[in-house]
Specification:
Helix content is about 45%, strand content about 15%. The protein contains 14 helices and ten strands. InterPro entries: Ac_transferase_dom_sf (IPR001227), Acyl_transferase_dom (IPR014043), Acyl_Trfase/lysoPLipase (IPR016035), PKS_NRPS_Biosynth_Enz (IPR050091).
C-alpha cells in the first residue's frame, strides 16, 4: 500500500450561491488573483464578469442564481480558483473527482479542457435542452434508495438522478408532476429540498436533446489528462473527455457514493471539497463514517468561516495524509 493520496472534489449545479467565497475574495490575495484570472475567461468569451454578480451587495448570502448559464460560469470560476489557490499554498491533489458540472472543472484543472470553450459548449447545450426538453424539477430527498424505489408514486413519476449516500438521493421529475410528488413527500414526513435547476440532468428527460447536445461539442478541443480525473457518472477514472463521456456526464445518474467507495477500496484518501457549499465533504463523511472526519476538509460554506476552514486545511493536511497512510490496511 503506497502513501495516502489527496482528492479534490468538484460539485455541480445547485451548490452555487451568491456571496460564495466572499471571505477569501476579500482576505486572501491568492484566491482573489485566481478568481480574477478565471473570470477573465468568462469575459473573454463575450460574457459579463461574474464577480459583480456573485458579490452584489443586494444579494443575500445563499440566494440562488436565477440564470443557469450565469450559475455555471460562476461555479466554474470559483471552483477552479479555489483549486489553484490551494495548489499554490502547497495542497496538491493526486486525483480530481467531478460530480456533474464539477467534472468540467476537474477537466479544466487536469488541462484536458479549455475553460472558455467548455463554458461556451455548456451554454449551447442549455439552449438545446430548453428547446427540446420539458422543464424539470430537481429535489434532494433524505431517505434511503430502497424507500424511493418502493414508493409507487416516486417510482412512476421520478428518476433517481444522484446517489449521494445511503439516506440521501436526488430525484428528477417533470415540473408538472412536482406538486403531486411534494404532497407525497410531506405525507411521509420526508425531509426534502428543491435544487434551483430546471433541466432534467442525469435522467431520461434530457434524451430528446442528445443530438443537439452532441453537435454542440463539435470542434471542442480535448487534450490528454495531466492529472487523473474520477467521474461520478461512471464511478471510475476518465480515459478521455470524448463526446460519449461528456454526454454521459449530463445523462447518467451521479453515483457519488459508489465513486467514493471505489476509491476507498484502493486505499484511504484525504478529501478536499473545492465546491462552494461543502456539500461533497458532508456526503463523504456520511459514506465513510464518523471516523473519517479528520481526513475530509470543506473550505467554502454557505455559513461562512472560509478563512478558518482554509487555515485548518493548510495546518492539518499533511498530518491527515500521514494518519490515513498509517491506518491503511497492508
Amino acid at each position: 500500500m503506497g502513501p495516502a493520496k489527496t482528492v479534490f472534489m468538484f460539485s455541480g449545479l445547485g451548490s452555487q450561491y451568491h456571496q460564495m467565497g466572499r471571505e477569501l475574495f476579500e482576505q486572501d490575495a491568492v484566491f482573489n488573483r485566481w478568481l480574477l484570472h478565471y473570470d477573465s475567461f468568462v469575459t473573454g468569451t463575450g460574457g459579463a464578469s461574474v464577480i459583480p454578480e456573485i458579490y452584489a451587495p443586494e444579494r443575500q448570502r445563499g440566494n440562488a442564481f436565477s440564470d443557469l448559464k450565469r450559475a455555471a460560469a460562476a461555479l466554474l470560476v470559483v471552483e477552479c480558483a479555489l483549486a489553484r489557490s490551494l495548489m499554490e499554498a502547497g495542497v496538491v491533489p493526486d486525483l480530481l473527482l467531478g460530480a456533474s458540472l464539477g467534472e468540467y472543472a476537474a477537466g479544466i484543472l487536469a488541462e484536458a479542457l479549455d475553460f472558455g470553450e467548455i463554458l461556451q459548449v455548456f451554454h449551447q447545450q442549455l439552449d438545446v435542452l430548453r428547446e427540446a426538453c420539458a422543464r424539470a424539477t430537481l429535489v434532494g430527498v433524505f431517505h434511503s434508495f430502497a424507500w424511493v424505489a418502493s414508493t409507487p408514486l416516486l417510482r412512476e413519476r421520478c428518476e433517481i438522478s444522484a446517489y449521494n449516500f445511503e439516506g440521501c438521493v436526488a430525484l428528477t421529475l417533470r415540473e408538472r408532476d412536482w406538486e403531486e410528488v411534494r404532497r407525497c413527500l410531506i405525507a411521509h414526513d420526508v425531509v426534502h429540498q428543491v435544487v434551483p435547476v430546471d433541466q432534467g440532468f442525469h435522467s431520461s428527460l434530457v434524451e430528446p436533446a442528445e443530438g443537439g447536445v452532441r453537435r454542440a461539442m463539435q470542434g471542442l478541443q480535448r487534450r490528454s489528462l495531466a492529472m487523473p480525473v474520477l467521474s461520478c457518472a461512471t464511478n471510475r477514472r476518465v480515459i478521455a473527455f470524448d463526446d460519449d463521456h461528456l454526454w454521459g456526464v449530463l445523462r447518467k445518474p451521479i453515483g457519488f457514493q459508489r465513486t467514493i467507495e471505489a476509491l476507498e477500496r484502493e486505499g484511504k484518501h484525504v478529501y478536499v471539497d473545492v465546491g462552494p457549499s461543502g456539500t461533497l465533504a458532508g456526503y463523504t463523511k456520511h459514506v465513510l463514517g464518523r471516523a473519517s472526519a479528520a481526513r475530509v476538509f470543506p473550505v467554502l460554506s454557505i455559513f461562512g468561516r472560509d478563512v478558518h476552514n482554509l487555515s485548518k486545511l493548510l495546518s492539518q493536511h499533511r498530518g491527515a495524509l500521514e494518519d490515513a497512510a498509517w491506518r491503511a490496511p497492508a
